[in-house]
Structure formats: structure tokens, C-alpha cells
Write a structure and sequence with these properties.
434 Repressor (Amino-terminal Domain), Umud Fragment, subunit A, 2 domains, two-stranded antiparallel sheet, 12 strands, about 30% strand
Length: about 220
């Protein structure tokens, strides 16, 4: 009963599917599903896509010609398009970096590093961050310097849209020299950054200009039970 016009409008605007996916904060795979109708097109997606394409939301989904007489069917189809089923939760695809961030001596890091892709409930991810999936990565911590907050082999969710240390003592993933670290960072008045561990037996360190590269903020910790 309804026609999905997203692909047609996107192409008319001279945008690739990748361009539109980045503009609305989703993956290329999910963007394809939204255009094909394989993923529920709820109101939030409609508004995001409309804003990205600079069009009114109602032009993205239009009735087929000749369907105006079946008002009940139109209302039902639109409800399914916008709200979907309770059993069809939105998912985000997030990469897991193939690297271990050291929480002790540190591990060698060469950025960027990519790994496998995993799917997670969007509602679960949004408890921790509103960043697009393309800015989120999972990585594994090693060592015990962040114990008891983060244990050896815990998986952390890193939000790379946050890379400026403006608030003291949050946990960050960073490159310190040639080592990947997960530590609390505290900006100091002289421009240096103090590197802190939650394990009281590990002494703090101080990074000066050019020694520390912040990758992103640790926004969640996943622990195997």
C-alpha cells in the first residue's frame, strides 16, 4: 500500500548510501535495510532521514496510486512502517577492535585497528551513549591496574566521538607512547595529563605534550560471568 521513496530521493540529491548512513548515524548495512524495507521504519528514522535529505517526512513514504479508498489498510500499513513489531528491536552493528588495551604494562597499539562486527540492541547501547555506531568500538582490556573497576579480559565499549579530556578522572582508551592503555585521565593546569589506575598498588604517571593520544572514552564495561 505504501512506497518507500528514500533511495530515489537520496539519489536525486546526489548522495551515496554511505553518505546518508553517516548523516543519520547508522551503518551502511542498516541503511540498505531501511531503504529496502527490511528494517522497520519508525518515526525517529523517518525524521532523521528527512532532515538529512532536506525534505518533509511525509514524502519519504507515500501511498500507491489507487489505494486512497482503503483508508483502514493505509493506516495499518503506516503503523507497521513507523512502529514495527515489539519482537523486532532495532539493532546496531559495532566493530570489535582486534587489540587488547593494557591496564598494566600496556599493549602495542596501531590505530586504526578493525575486527569483527557484532550486533547489539540499540536500546541497550543508548543507555551509555548517543554516538553513531560508526564511532563505537568494543575492545578487550588486559592486566589488573584498573581493578576492581575493570578486570582482566573485560570487554569495554569505547566512544571515539569523545576524545577531549575535559572532565577529570573519567576512564579513557588512549595510546601512550606505543602502548594502548585504559586509564583514568586527569588534565592538569600546566597542560600535562595525569594517568591514574584504580588499583592503589599502581603508581600514577604523567603524560606531557605529544606523549598521549586519546582514542575515546570508555562508556560501558561488559563482564563475562
Amino acid at each position: 500500500m505504501f512506497t518507500n521513496n528514500i533511495s530515489q530521493i537520496r539519489k536525486a540529491k546526489g548522495l551515496s548510501q554511505t553518505d546518508l548512513a553517516e548523516a543519520i548515524g547508522t551503518t551502511l548495512n542498516n541503511m540498505g535495510k531501511l531503504e529496502r524495507g527490511d528494517r522497520r521504519l519508525h518515526q525517529d528514522w523517518i525524521e532523521k532521514i528527512a532532515n538529512a535529505l532536506s525534505v518533509e517526512p511525509h514524502v519519504l513514504i507515500t501511498p500507491h496510486h489507487g489505494s486512497a479508498n482503503n483508508v483502514g489498510a493505509i493506516k495499518q500499513d503506516r503503523a507497521e512502517l513507523e512502529h514495527g513489531s515489539r519482537d523486532d528491536p532495532e539493532e546496531l552493528e559495532i566493530q570489535q577492535w582486534d587489540i587488547a588495551y593494557g591496564m598494566g604494562a600496556g599493549g602495542y597499539v596501531d590505530i586504526p585497528v578493525t575486527g569483527e562486527t557484532y550486533r547489539f540492541s540499540e536500546s541497550w547501547i543508548r543507555q551509555f551513549t548517543r554516538a553513531p555506531a560508526s564511532k563505537l568500538f568494543f575492545a578487550t582490556g588486559t592486566g589488573d591496574s584498573m581493578s576492581p573497576t575493570i578486570l582482566d579480559s573485560d570487554i569495554v565499549l569505547i566512544d571515539t566521538s569523545e576524545h577531549e579530556v575535559r572532565m577529570a578522572d573519567r576512564i579513557w582508551a588512549a595510546a601512550y607512547g606505543q602502548a594502548g592503555i585504559i586509564k583514568r585521565l586527569r588534565p592538569m593546569p600546566n597542560g600535562s595529563v595525569k594517568i591514574l589506575s584504580d588499583n592503589q598498588n599502581v603508581a600514577p604517571e604523567t603524560a606531557y605534550d605529544g606523549e598521549l593520544h586519546v582514542v575515546g572514552r570508555v562508556v560501558a564495561i561488559v563482564r563475562k560471568m
